[in-house]
Amino acid sequence: MIKNYLKSGFRNLFRHKGYALINITGLAVGIASCLLISMYVKDEFTFDSYHENTESIYRLTRISMRQGEEVIMPGVSYPEAEAYFNEIPEVINFARLRKDGGVVQVGQDLFDEKGILFTDKGLYSMFDFEVLDGALDSKVSELESLIITRSTAMKYFGNTRAAGKELVIKLRGEFERYIVTAVIEDHPSNSSFNFNMAMSWTRLKTVVDEWTRNFWLITPVTAYVMLDDQARTEQVAQKMTEVRTRKNASDDQMSAALKNESNGLIPLKEAHLQFKKESEANQPYLLSGIALLILIIASFNFSTLSIVNSLSRSKEVGVRKTIGASRKNLVLQFLTEALLISILSFILGIILAEVAQPGFESLVKRPFSYHLLGDPALLIVCFTIVLIICLLSVIYPSVFLSRLKVVNVFRGQTKVNQKKWLTRSMVTLQFLAAFVFITVAFGVNQQHEHLIDKEKGYNDRNLIKLEIPGGNSKQVSQQIKNELNKSPNILSVGAVGSLNEAISLQDAEGNRVFVVQGNADLGYLSTMQIELLEGSNFTAIDQVSEDAESPIINVLINQSAASLLNEEDPIGKLIDNQYRVVGVMNDFQVFSALSKMNSAMLMADTRPGRAFQLNNIYIRYQENKLSETLSDLETVWSQVLPFEPFNYTFVDEYNRNLYQKESLWSKTLSYASGLAIVISIMGLVGLVGLSASERKKEVSIRKVLGATVSGLLLMLNRGVSSMLMLSIIISIPVAYYVIEQFLQDYSYRIGITPWLFAWPLAITFIVAFLIISVVTLRTASTNPVESLRNE
To answer: Shortest CA distance to 132 belongs to which of 186, 66, 73, 194?
Structure first.
């Protein structure tokens, strides 16, 4: 019996090739999209869950009270984790992590290595790492020990049998030799670790000075602690506060600063999403919703075509019942056909997902460590959902058709048309979701473009940035500037320190405020083309030597800083009895347009002993002289820094890359809306095609009575047009709400105007209408004789 059902099912699919192709393809596209998004969502929710000790490991955080609000910082100070391990019995292991960069020398080649990690030996006993060569034993604590990943071993040695071999690396001063202790497998895609090589914490002591390593106020270290099974996190956190207080009891200033601070313990599995912004933390849920919506659209497509296709099978049912088929036989036949479509769609969906996986990985900026076929649980869950949807979709038409009386079937009195409201409702819901997708995608794309094109306060076109490594950046940058100024291809050169530190200043009313600060040279403003609104730029006399002692430092502040300091006429004013304002700059973008313009202060001094004072050199070059400029830069770099790899950054490209989240959402929603529209139109084409085919005789009679092709075309498209218009009307308030919620996270956002809805909806409506018109035109142009010859 089952064999007969399968034979009949395949025959029916081949008999209705168009219906089968649209159904299988539409459902397969929906399945492929759902599978790919499910891979990403699963990765997000299973971060670090593969470690055996996951339940006992916690991320150590610092909790600080600022202006009455609790702020959780992901890092802690250098000494904390070790102190807690030594003095709190419940803490049975710990690991500190600090990332850095260096230069690897292989023969005559130099490689800029950003993924160097300093860590304690506890990392390798707390977490699971697959060792490919060597061993994670006591040697990992030695000064010259080096742990590398598979990819790093392949990069530098050509194979993974690298244990015992040497690598020459420079961290700060000279190149030194390191011995590879072990080679470990690359980190999976759902791992918080992303280092390429790891050095011992003993090595860190040669890079960071002792005062910094024992300073409890800064938070540059990522730390994990492992608690015993009976430990209670609240009690452990309280003991940590007691230890911190006891360790700093002799320093009144430190004790006062740490008084309102405490530690937090975040379970390892929750740590990944904990430190993301709310919008980013909700991203897996939103992507799950998108995947579900696409699958629902594909399912509605399947349901609609199944119901409409059943109209043409009433006589088949009548014949089957005449020769003895029971209701049960007929229902099982329809369910078998649904099962066949489900299986074929699922197989095609897996193939499409496997083909599209590299592109999807590029889109979400995450190479997955496994393929779909290697995750049977995900495949089983997805197939079960698809199968249930398909079976539910054919239950109504199969039960309805199996109840038809044979006499009524052959008289043409099936009355299936009374249920057209069901198919119209599903088509309307399909396009409602598709219209919301495309409108929201258009809005997100506009916001993304708005952030990129927003006025930055400086000109980022034809601008290149060089970053100077090492601690003697002032002298090195001066050498590089002197040489670059000789090039006819370069318009100007300026240098600035890292604008990533804040300084506390006293405003005009005596309150303490924080301002971003850094050192700058004479050419920085002109090179960046930052407008000076009041006062003057630095002069040569402001650039004091490193040996000079000057209690007063001339500074430039921007408008936001002047407003924050409550200074209406700041020129010549002395701030904190140390900083004299000589000029006010226009506001300029320090970080990104995701937040408001930062208050900034540029200082003219070169405070002795301070590293990285002018480590960023900006070069403005002549338009159409890019290749010549890069050649000049590389020549000068090789002369001044022969043992450092040459790297440069285009500032405009860097600014675009600041908005990767927005870019991800823009592309994801664009692809999702495209898929939703394509699937919906495929279903609509099938629906209109079957509907028009049933109305051939009506169309022929109307043509005989004088109806024109254009009139018939409008008549056949009237129902489709009304469904599309209803979908548009309902989609506008829904899309408005979604876009408004999305824009809440941005300080600088686009306005929600009627054009934001008009353009995407109008274009989509016109495209859908034209495609449907091509289908109905074939029916409207049919010769009446062909349809009425048998009447």
So the answer is: 186
User: For the chain, how long is the longest CA-to-CA vector?
Assistant: 109
The confidence score (pLDDT) of residue 608 equals 46
CB count, 10 Å around CB of 503?
14
Crossing angle for the helix pair 283-311 and 660-694, to the nearest 10 degrees? 10
Q: Give the global pTM.
A: 0.73
What gap in Å lies between CA 236 and CA 158, rounded to an integer? 47
Q: What is the pLDDT of residue 97?
A: 94
DSSP state of 403: T
d(CA 333, CA 695): 27
Degrees to nearest 5, angle at CA 462 with 456 and 464: 90
Tally Cβ neighbours within 10 Å of residue 205: 14
* Residue at token pair 């099982």: 332
Average per-residue pLDDT in the chain? 81
- Whole-angstrom CA distances from 207 to 143, 170, 171, 213, 269 are 12, 11, 8, 10, 32
Contact, 779 vs 699, CB < 8 A? Answer: yes
More confident residue, 324 or 671: 671
C-alpha distances out from residue 646 to 168, 473, 636, 739, Å: 18, 15, 10, 43
> Which of these, 264, 213, 247, 271, lies nearest to 86 by C-alpha position?
247
**561-570, 590-599, 648-657: least confidently modelled range:** 590-599
pLDDT category at 277 given cuts 50, 70, 90 is: low
Q: Residue 773's Cα: distance from chain center in Å?
A: 39
Q: Is 71 helix (H, G, I), strand (E, B) or coil?
A: strand
Residue 77 vs residues 217, 222, 325: alpha-carbon distances, Å: 7, 9, 79
Share of the chain above pLDDT 90, in %: 18
Question: 653 with 496: CB under 8 angstroms?
Answer: no
pLDDT value of residue 167: 93
Q: In 10 A of CB 270, how many CB atoms?
A: 12
